[in-house]
Amino acid sequence: MTTRTEPYQFPPLEEATVDGLLAIGGDLSSERLLTAYRKGIFPWYNPGQPILWWSPDPRTVLYPSRLRISRSLRKTLRHRDFHITTDKAFDRVIRECAESKRSSTVTGTWITTDMRNAYLNLYRLGYAHSVETWQHNRLVGGLYGVAIGGIFFGESMFSLTRDASKVALAGLVSQLLQLEFRLIDCQLPSAHLFSLGAQSISRIEFVEEVKLGINSKQVSIPWRLAINADDLP
Fold first, then answer.
1. What is the residue-wise DSSP string for 36-77?
2. How many CA atoms lie within 13 A of 27 on its CB side?
3. Cβ atoms of 213 and 150 closer than 8 Å
4. Which of 79, 96, 130, 162 has a Cα-to-Cα distance from 143 of 20 to 30 A?
């Protein structure tokens, strides 16, 4: 693992530590973030730490066509009056994700003010997107991430009521299938993601997928999906 401070430069991925830490330092400028994502790298750090850049091996991904929604979950979703939108409340989604991280007892990345501002900038540039889950006109779940070409790099999600984050993920997949996206980067493994169809692939495979995917045509922005839960794939 190497510390690098040159503009938008990162060490070779092979220099990452066993747990995936690749570099320390730099900033969260839009140019650096986009460079990192294109190389299969993402920022992840806690308050009081310098910016840490990661490229874990293996990598957790979800191919949109392989989303798994159980019959019981689908039944639950259709009876709870969920409504899904995209890019309608990006700032609210990222704030809720930050609050969710702060209140969680699970060790993880806090979304600091600097990180929030960085992704708001990417949203204004048309790279970051949000998916919102509404119930009776109340925002109850959502997620956000970065789209480059045909790859969606997932960052964080939250849920204020049962299944709301799963609904947002299903909404994301519906949007990505429409836009013919290749892959969702889920970054790190979890039983929750695996239950929904995610899988682990090697870093080499992931980088190849990213290279192929980011060369796809960048879709127009903002996204304009609005569906009910019974319209999910």
1. HHHTT-EE---TTSPPEEE--SSEEEE-GGG----HHHHHHH
2. 8
3. yes
4. 79
Does the bond joining 222 to the residue before it have cis omega, within 30 degrees of 0? yes
Q: How many domains does the chain have?
A: 2
**Predicted confidence (pLDDT) per residue in 148-169, tens digit:** 999 999 999 999 998 899 999 9
**Element containing residue 153 per DSSP (H, E):** strand 151-159
pLDDT in tens, 6-57: 468 899 999 999 999 999 999 999 999 999 999 999 999 988 899 999 999 9
Query: What tokens appear for 69 in the block?
Result: 């929604």
38 and 143 both lie in a single domain: no
Do 137 and 150 reside in the same domain of the chain? yes
The Cα 180–Cα 100 span in angstroms is 31
| Same domain, yes or no: 102 and 122 | yes
Characterize the bridge pairing of strands 42-43 and 21-24. Answer: unpaired
Give the global pTM.
0.90
Question: Residue type for 84, please?
Answer: I
* Residue 157, in any domain of the structure: yes
Which amino acid is present at 9?
Answer: Q
Token pair of 29 as six digits = 């400028």
d(CA 141, CA 80): 13
* Strands lying side by side in the sheet with 151-159: 199-201, 59-62, 183-187, 151-159, 138-148, 128-135, 82-86, 226-228
CATH number of residue 32's parent domain: 3.30.70.3550
